[in-house]
């Protein structure tokens, strides 16, 4: 998909704040340092459409981005940052769960993992929820520019085994920095939302 005029729509924490729209939504989920904002910016070819929080783990809102009136990207708050309190983690969990449970436009979830890190308990929990919700989904391994291509492929296999991913679940190694893997990921998004 060639995105010509992506626009930030709104930041929301409650369902009543979500945009009124019939566009299908692709949500980006992952740890607070997985690179969700960078990937969104790279996919729409903009440098500063999506912002990560100035302090890691501090983004509490769900950010909606309209892609030319054809599709909505949804940046979910990151999880798993150790320096936040249990109350904050619980609040973020409610914000994300509220979106995932009530948003009928949600069609696909991209679960982002840093290719250099093993999946965390939070990653496994999120993946289990996605599977149980029977949503279209894929695993996106970010920051692949930090490793050689061979090592990145090795890590993809290790992560597939660690998460017990069935063969039909696609893994996309990408780099927002050097833009590798973005075309294949876009093809998967286009295919999923046009079926």
Structure summarized in a few sentences:
This protein is α/β, with parallel strands linked by helices and 195 residues long.
Low-confidence blocks of residues: 54-58
Quick one: biggest sheet? 7 strands, mixed
Tell me, rounded to a whole number, the average pLDDT: 89
The backbone outline, from C-alpha atoms, is globular
Order of strands, widest sheet = 1-3-4-2-5-6-7
Count up the helices: 5
Overall tally of structural domains: 1
* Strands, count: 7
**Helix-strand topology string:** EEHEEHEHEHEH
Q: Could you give me the name of the CATH homologous superfamily? A: P-loop containing nucleotide triphosphate hydrolases
- The percent range for helix content is 25-40%
End-to-end separation in angstroms reads 15 Å
State the main characteristics:
single chain; 195 residues; alpha/beta; Rossmann fold; seven-stranded mixed beta sheet; globular
Structure description:
The protein contains five helices and seven strands. Strands 1-3-4-2-5-6-7 form a seven-stranded mixed sheet, with helices on both faces. The protein is 33% helix and 22% strand. The protein has 195 residues and is an alpha/beta fold. The chain has one domain (6-194): P-loop containing nucleotide triphosphate hydrolases (Rossmann fold).
């Amino acid at each position: 998909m060639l995105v010509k005029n992506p626009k930030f729509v709104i930041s929301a924490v409650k369902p009543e704040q979500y945009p009124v729209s019939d566009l299908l939504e692709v949500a980006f989920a992952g740890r607070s340092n997985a690179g969700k904002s960078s990937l969104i910016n790279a996919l729409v070819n903009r440098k500063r459409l999506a912002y990560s929080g100035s302090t890691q783990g501090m983004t509490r809102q769900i950010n909606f981005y309209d892609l030319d009136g054809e599709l909505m990207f949804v940046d979910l708050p990151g999880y798993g940052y150790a320096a936040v309190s249990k109350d904050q983690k619980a609040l973020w969990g409610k914000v994300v769960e509220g979106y995932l449970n009530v948003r009928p436009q949600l069609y696909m979830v991209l679960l982002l993992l840093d290719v250099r890190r093993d999946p965390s308990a939070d990653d496994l929990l999120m993946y289990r929820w996605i599977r149980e919700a029977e949503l279209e989904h894929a695993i996106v391994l970010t920051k692949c520019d930090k490793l050689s291509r061979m090592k990145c492929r090795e890590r993809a296999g290790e992560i597939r085994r660690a998460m017990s991913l069935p063969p039909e679940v696609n893994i996309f190694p990408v780099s927002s920095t050097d833009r590798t893997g973005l075309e294949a990921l876009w093809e998967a998004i286009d295919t999923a939302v046009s079926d």
